[in-house]
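Field notebook, page 358. I keep forgetting to write these up properly, so this time I am using the form the group agreed on. The chain and the ligand, manganese (II) ion, are recorded exactly as supplied. Prediction of the bound pose follows.
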Amino acid sequence: MHRPLGITVSRHIMDLQRMHPGATGELTGLLNELIVAAKTISAEVNMAGLADILGMSGKTNIQGEEVQKLDEFANNTIKRRMARCGYLCVMTSEEEDDVLPVKEGYEGKYTLAFDPLDGSSNIDVNVSIGTIFSVHRRRNAKDGFFRRRTDPGAGVRTSYVGRQGTVDDLLQKGRDQVAAGYIIYGSSTMLVFTTGEGVHGFTLDPSVGEFYLSHPEIEIPEKSKYFSVNEGNYPYWSDNMRRYIEFLKQEDKEAGRPYSARYIGSLVADFHRNLITGGIFLYPRDRKSPGKASGKLRLLYEASPLAFIVEQAGGRAITDDGVAILDIEPQSLHQRVPLIIGSRHDVDEAQAFLTGNR
Ligand code: AHG
Ligand code: MN
Ligand code: MN
């Protein structure tokens, strides 16, 4: 297969910007800063297994600095870099109870929600983990102003300056995202994102420190033969959910069943595999998860960004009562949501079972 070689992610983002003559370059700048954070986390993830051997475990490392847990490191890397990037007005992270303000004087027009390290139970066992992000334009984006300032080293920059953002700016529907994506730290590090014009995947060449376009215009296969679910939750599922999973395991050669099970336990990794090979991932509500009516995964920085990506790739994402994830009006920062996501045909079929129509 021919793959265009050598297109860096910055070049690709710049090309996207050129297609929008009115664009100010701020989203470009935001994504580029986020990519630097991702590369920093990627380097740290790759070193994680060496920590003990190199004597970096325990309270301090060989430079006498305190060693942070990898999820804390990822959280701090993103929050510190993005707080002064000049393009955001407020952030929220899975690792923080409250909103994260940006540095005063650096308020921009976008908001950022992120899961700094998804799949954290897999950190210590060398299994793929990732970072998920979601970007919205703040509400009333026009109630700010443009300002020119001189940055040491960066010269004169023009940017939008406004007030700090609020919780309200973050509580917006997935449908209104301007960008969403994830970085997967796996056998190689990949960045997959959308700005509403298809889904594109980039692979990090660690020797150069650049992401190169490796998967242009990703489309998720319409129908699959894989399902991803934590079947250990079977006793806590609804009858409809149990019937659906039983159905996937029944033999029916013509319909391509039984399906094969694939479950990593890192949402990013399970989602990424399903995006490329086709598949359906389910984390429905159950009698065990906190806030029983809502499942385990979080709306703002897990379900919503992946839903944007999957729809852009031709797939679907719904709750277990058939509501499109992207149409949910968020009520709180860390709200959980049942998530059924993947190949279009499979999600249609799951919906029929879960809503009692099959
Ligand atoms: P996180 O590591 O960010 O807290 O997320 C863990 C999530 C998600 O990555 C994964 O799909 C899910 O937890 C797995 O949950 P179970 O262990 O209940 O299957
Ligand atoms: Mn997570
Ligand atoms: Mn996490």
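OBSERVATIONS:
- Residues 226-354 form a domain with the D-Maltodextrin-Binding Protein; domain 2 fold (CATH 3.40.190.80).
- The chain is about 25% helix and 25% strand.
FOLLOW-UP: compare against the apo run.
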